[in-house]
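[Meeting: bench + compute handoff]

Bench side (C.D.) handed over the final construct sequence. Compute side (W.E.) agreed to return the predicted structure before the next meeting so the bench team could plan truncations. Sequence as handed over:
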Amino acid sequence: MIAPMEINILIDDDFKLCLDKTWLRCVTRETLRAQELGPDVEVGLVITGPERLCQLNREYLGINEPTDVLSFPMLSQPGAGEELGSPFVTPLDGVLHLGEVIISYPQAVTQAAERQHPAKREVAILIIHGVLHLLGYDHAEAEAARQMSALESEILSRIEEKCL
């Protein structure tokens, strides 16, 4: 029997009534499926506030300001010292542990208002963006940014059909 994708969700108490875990799982699962990942995948999703994102941004990226989404991959990233290997031990359970995506719900609400679409859609966009970062996608260079943006749009269309 094949185990389903494991999507661990943690929502800060302040936002528990704002988002449904079933919907968050659907968005995350469809993003992973769009990348042709099988069921033996695990990812963490955290919904929190801007203070926590600012703290993480400062601690891990040296940027002392809030952001909308951060990704913490557990896999070695191309070009990021792969000669040293992953800092994590590869588990024997056969599950691909991707890492965590952390989203600032208040920032998503602000961005949704600026872009004139529902907050739920903005959260979906941030989940897609974060998961793609876990999978090694980046937007530092113009061509990579264009490819990542096109992929995000494609996945969002798929999610709108199945989850939104």
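W.E. noted at the follow-up: The first strand starts at residue 6 and ends at 11. C.D. will use this when planning the next construct.
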